[in-house]
Amino acid sequence: MSPSVPLQEMIRAIRSARTQCEERGVIQRECAAIRAQFRQADNGGRSHNLAKLLYVHMLGYPAHFGQMECVRMIASPRYSEKRVGYLGAMMLLDEKQDASLLITNSIKKKVHDLGELFAPAARSLLSEKNHGVLHGAVVLITELCERNPETLERFRKTVPDLVQIMKGLVISGYSPEHDVAGISDPFLQVRILRLLRILGRNNEAASDAMNDLLAQVATNTDSTKTVGNAVLYETVLTVLDIKSESGLRVLAVNILGRFLLNNDRNIRYIAMTSLQRIVGTDHNAVQRHRGTIVDCLKDQDASVKRRALELSLALVSATNIRSMMKELLLFLSSCPPELKSQAASGIFNAAERYAPSQRWHIDTILHVLTTAGGDVRDETVPNLIQLITNTSELHCYTVHKLYRALLTDISQQSLVQVACWCIGEYGDLLLRGECQETEPVQVTEDDVLDALETVLQSHMSSPATRGFALTATMKLSTRITDNVDRIRSIVSIYGSCIDVELQQRAVEYNALFKKYDHMRAAVLERMPVIEKNSPGHTNGESTKEAVKEIQPAKVKQAETLLPQQPTNQVCDLLDLLGGSEEPLQPNSAAGSTVPVLPISTSSTAGGDLLDLLGGLEPAPLTPAVTVYEKGGVTLTLSSEKQSDSGLMVTLTASNSTDSDISSFTLQAAVPKSVQLHMKAPSGDFLPARGAAKVTQMVVLNNPNKVNLKMRIRVSYTSQGSAVQDTVQVDSFPEH
């Protein structure tokens, strides 16, 4: 049999085989001939050969070697080859084959130049009576218009024809051939509406030509069936996307409002999605359905709830802020956990824009913190503090309300932080008990300190919250008179806290109580008003620049308080704080309480004084000496003389490599006559590129005053490898 025999001859030869062995021989010879012709670069009989191979495949014989030929034929410009190529792909390929990806990419390429060939014929097909032909023509015209702007302009002239076809479908009587649930050919109607939407977009003439039709479809289509709702939805999308009349847009919004009352959740969902898109341009029309939208907040479906929340927040305005906020706060108290953060953020933004009064604004935010304090964003606390600071007439009211909230619940960390801050700033107003805004409550100094101690000792309090509580306790030392010793005792306890942030603050506060008690009142005075940077700032924006603007005034104020102090006392203070020429970086543990900016030692005494409470990075009390630097790990040592024989050594480790270091530990050995006590380290993880440090405190007691030496073993794991090294320190920085 010749390799070029036609398909019919091959079929006849196979069928005439008397045995299965003879049939296999015929197929093997033909497959060999087909393989040889597939390898030829220019093969005119490709479709002929693939057709024969498909017949072989139907008989159950292997035909996988024709898969790549299917890909080549699909990419061919010849229609005859494309047709057989697609047929071969359907039969020879499945989703597990790599060639299917090539075919998918080939299908995605459309030849734009060929579109011009179909445009005249597509327009003439609009006069056909057969609905199948009309449907295909509309789909083709839609594709051509989406891909070529020139073709789009040309087909805008067909709008009257499309309007007539659509009117015929709307007003036609019952037709068994095309009727679906009482709607005449809804598939064709949807396709025509989509094409009209494309043709009428950004074109007033085309939009005017279809306005009457869209109104007729919107009013005459039955909305009790899913089929009718599909046509109505496409009508609404078309009305909202073209340059339609205002009355028609209101009609479209009303249709979406009816969708919100539908029992089908999918219909309610798409209605709210569409309303969300137009609420900015047709706000008043959407507002008419506010009640229905708010009711959707109670829907059981999480997706519907989320859309209803987004739409409800978009509908909040100055005229309905009180009623809408009442509904939103009610929703916040019972909404799913995954929506609490979004709801809280939206309520904050709405309150910032439309708050009728400052007291209402504060009450609303406090309500959110009480309900969902664990789900609010990080900037909520400083923003609320700024709001409270700027509302001086409500300081007494706010501190009383926050104190009662603190006694009720200390699990909401954001609420507890703001409450601690207010008690520290305005604790004197709380103790007076004179507040016209609320019922008078007698609060004693012990009551306030008990509340703050509860926060400090609670396992629910985060390190940042404890920082707020400790700073508030310290601030109360200048606002109360009978319990200063108790405050001193509380602060001293945290001087040896395992948390470095609290330990550092406690050490600084203890220094204020002892050596610099005369400066305590000036350092702990009330925060000034925090001004906003520029018009238009919202609570969602940072207030760092505002703090920078306030700092010079604060420095001047401190300067006026310090001239009577001897110069050597100020220098001693600088030594205590480890003053250096490099600016110290601020820290966020309780930095909202006292503003701190980088100030060098050359600035005024008052400026250095402000650094005392500024939440600095752990800084050595004497200049640090680098004792180990290897493999990107740096270890510095500083010391402070505690007594005649006692020395506090601070070891600080950092990592300058591009990979994190874990299981970092330090071990130390000293001469036998020296007593050594190593405190708990600040951690065992060193992030890459010096993002954070590990601090280890070592207490040495040298009663015999021998020459101090220390051997330090450094151990850690980096990139899966364990590293261990030893360094010896023969001398210590002098204090």
From TrEMBL:
Keywords: Cytoplasmic vesicle, Golgi apparatus, Membrane, Protein transport, Transport. It is a peripheral membrane protein. It is found in: Cytoplasmic vesicle membrane; Endomembrane system; Golgi apparatus. GO terms for biological process: axis elongation; central nervous system development; intracellular protein transport; vasculature development; vesicle-mediated transport. Residues 620-733 form the GAE domain. It comes from the Eukaryota. Its main location: membrane. Pfam families: Adaptin_N, Alpha_adaptinC2. GO terms for cellular component: AP-1 adaptor complex. SMART domains: Alpha_adaptinC2. Belongs to the adaptor complexes large subunit family. This is AP-1 complex subunit gamma.
